[in-house]
Every structure is written in C-alpha cells, then in structure tokens.
Amino acid sequence: MHKRVIFTAVAAISAANSYAQSSVTLYGVFDSAVRFSTNQPTANGPRNVVSLDPGAFNGGRWGLRGTEDLGLGNKAVFALESGFNFDTGKSGQQGQLFGRQAWVGIANKTFGTVKVGRQYGSADWFHATVDPVETGNYSEVGWQTAVTGFRFDNTIDYTNEWGGLTINAQYSLGEQAGNASRGRTIQGYAMYTAGNLLFGGAAQTARDAQGRDMTVWTGGGTYTIGKFTLHSYYIDSRRDAGFLIGASGTTAPLANTSLMSNADTVAGPNTQTSERHDRIGVFGVTYQPSPSWRFIATYIRDNAAGVSRGASGSIQTGYFIADYYMSKRTDVYFEVDRSWLSAASVNDPNSPIGSFGGASNRTGIAVGMRHRF
Questions:
Q1: DSSP per residue over 336-372, as a string?
Q2: For residue 90, is it within any domain?
Q3: How many structural domains is the chain composed of?
Q4: I need a surface site. Which of 5, 151, 244, 257 has the fewest CB within 10 A?
Q5: pLDDT in tens, 23-80
Q6: CATH number of the domain encompassing residue 299
C-alpha cells in the first residue's frame, strides 16, 4: 500500500512537470475592409466596384502552434494554420484544411531547427521581413510575391542563427514518379541584423512538369532612424517560355504555390515563346510617431521583358496607409493605392497584379479593421 502511494505521487509529479514543459497556443487574425476599386474586369469591360474584402495586411486565419521540451536543448515544435475568407466563411488556399501552414519539427539551441510539411517559402519569408507591410494581402499592395509564390507542399526546411546572422534552406519535393526533379523547388535566405540595420538576400529555383525552370534572386533590407524605418529590396525573376504551374487543389507539379506561370499570351493559351524577365524594385518608408499611430508609403515597379515575343511592359503601384492602434490587438486603418500598366503589361495574362479589364490604371480606397487573438 505504501509503495502504491509513493508510485502515485511520483507519477503525479512527473505528469505535472511534463505538462509544464509543453504548450499549445490558439491564435488567429481577422482583417476586413470595405474597399472601392476602379477598373475591375467584367464581361462588359472594366467597371468600378465596392466590396467587403479581406483586409490590406492579413488574410483571415486561425491556428495552433506548440512546443514540447525534450531535454538536452531539444524541443518538438509544430504549427497548423487554416486560412478562411471572413466575408463568406469559405476556406482559403485552394480549400486545404491547413493551407497556410502544416508542419512539425525539432529545434535545438545549437544545431538549429528542422521542419517538414507545408510551409512559407524562403524567398517569401525574406520579403515579408523587409517589406513595409510584410507583402500585404491585396494584390495591389503585394503583387510582387507572385514571382516567388507563397507556400510550398512537401517541404523540408532548416533554419539556424549565429548572433545576428540567420540562415535558411528549403527543399520542396515534387513527388513525381520516375522524375524527382519535376515539381521540386529549392530556395534559401540569409539575413544579418546589426543594430538598426537588417540586410540580406534569397535565391530560389523551381522546375515544372515539362522540365522548364524559373529562377529568382533577391536582396535588400531595412534601416531604422528614430521614428522612421526605410525599406528597400530588388527581385530578379526569370521564367522559361511555357513555364506552367499545376492546377490549384491538386498534387500536380508546383500546384498550391501561387507562383506565376509563363505559358499564355494575348494570342491565347500556351502561345508563349519568350523567356520572361521581371525586374522589381520596392521602396518604402514607415513613420511611427507614437505607439498608437503608424504611417506607410510604398512604391513598387516591375520592368517586365518577354511578356510576349518581342514585347515588354511595366507595372507600377504606389500606396499609402494610415494605421491607428486602438489596443495591442486591434487597429483600424485607411488605405489608398494607385497602379499603372504600360505597353504589353496592359493585357498580359501572366501579370502578377492581375487584369484591369483592358484599362491601364486602377485606383483603390479602403477602410479596414484588424483584430488578433
């Protein structure tokens, strides 16, 4: 009897210690806006529209993230994150249950962290770090991410830090029988922080079902001076003629990545015969005069060569955001943007900003609210 009491007490203490060393957090974001936008495409040409949309900063999401201390400096880590459209209640990201993130891994204080599953791409993660709005949620304030994609299925990710240096490497398996290179993506980044300066770069390459390649390299950083933060980065992206991603919601090569294809032209589907070369510059400034107020102004430009055979074009966007924090978790904001298309970009079916219905410009105005839990 005495031994049984001792055993029960020890088990209870062990369970309590085990519980204290593990944690699971429920979190989420609601970001909604009423938006007016000119030159949205319709069957009758470009028209203005007023809509209730996901907000300028974040797509709606809820998720679970957790850790368990395994001892000897090791931790098990995981994240499950589901996206949704708050205005309709529909799931986002091709209807995948945890389409934003779904990964598990092991973290070690010395040797770094290894994660496996669906994850944000290295190049996208780098841009989110140096961009004024973490690349935003509207296409008008974050269209440059279409040249790198957002998230990748079947991904092995490694990250480690040494002082101010962070490095990352990713390999996303194509999982195509008989050809391991089809559908695979390789990417990585390096960032260094020294006081108020952060700078670094990323590189990425992907191969489609027919062996056509896309390559990206990018570099930039941020610098804080008092209440101002300067943001700047450059993206150089090339896509072979005919480069094509798989259909969303499938297991086809490069599906569910939000990458931009290079297969179609104004002449029709699968008519592209030119390599596409996008050269994108992003320049922005954030001014935060108090904990409650933040102001953001950004200019984005893409000089796109090879939009179709012998044709080039450009995309430009400028936007301004005034953001007021009602609390640490809730803010309201006013956003205005103006975009211009020129030459072949006006009717480009592969445009990262989407179609203006044949028009060469678009203006957007939005009032939004964001809440995080």
A1: EEEEEEEEGGGG-TT-TT---TT-SEEEEEEEEEEEE
A2: yes
A3: 1
A4: 5
A5: 999 999 999 999 999 999 999 999 999 999 999 999 999 999 999 999 999 999 999 9
A6: 2.40.160.10
> Which one, of 174, 173, 119, lies nearest residue 151 by Cα?
119
Q: Are 218 and 205 in contact (CB under 8 A)?
A: no
Q: Tens digits of per-residue pLDDT, 166-222?
A: 999 999 999 999 999 999 999 999 999 999 999 999 999 999 999 999 999 999 999
C-alpha span between 228 and 244 (Å, rounded): 41
**Diameter of the chain by CA atoms?**
89
- Higher-scoring residue by pLDDT: 205, 10: 205
Residue appearing with tokens 């896309």: 214
Is 13 within the bounds of a domain? no
- Is the residue at 351 inside a domain? yes
**290/199 Cα distance (integer angstroms):** 25
Measure the CA–CA gap between 223 and 232, rounded to whole angstroms. 9
Domain range for 38: 26-372
- Examine residue 117 and state whether it is found in any structural domain, yes or no: yes
Helix, strand, coil in percent for the chain, rounding step 5 = 10, 55, 35
The per-residue pLDDT for range 220-267, each reduced to its tens digit, is 999 999 999 999 999 999 999 999 999 999 999 999 999 999 999 999
Closest CA to 121 of 215, 252, 15, 257: 257
CB count, 10 Å around CB of 62?
16
Q: Which residue has the tokens 């079947």?
A: 154
pTM of the model: 0.91
- Give residues with Cβ within 8 angstroms of 98, minimum separation 6: 63, 80, 81, 82, 118
